[in-house]
Design goal:
- With 90 residues, this protein is mainly α.
- It has one domain.
- The protein contains four helices and no strands.
Length: 90
């Protein structure tokens, strides 16, 4: 969840608009994502046995697609695009 929260709030928190309550934006975003994660985990725990064969659905790809979409939305200049495309992770 940390990567998604960072991607959501870094642009708002870094804005030079003089907003004094930016930390509440970070807190609210973090709390919302945490509650959504906790509720979806509970629902998955309770009703996960209802879904039998989900291997062919492609749900394992969804987390990668989400992270790519969040990262791509923060690439707003040539420098960030070059760094984002050339950085390797081990």
């Amino acid at each position: 969840m940390t990567d998604q929260i960072y991607a959501l709030v870094e642009r708002r928190y870094g804005a030079k608009d003089g907003g004094a309550a930016k930390h509440w934006y970070v807190f609210a975003s973090s709390a919302t994502l945490f509650v959504a994660w906790a509720v979806s985990s509970y629902v998955g725990f309770e009703f996960g046995d209802v879904l039998k064969d989900v291997d062919g659905v492609g749900l394992d790809f969804a987390i990668y697609a989400t992270l790519v979409a969040l990262a791509a939305s923060s690439m707003d200049n040539v420098r960030s695009i070059v760094v984002g495309l050339t950085t390797r992770r081990a």
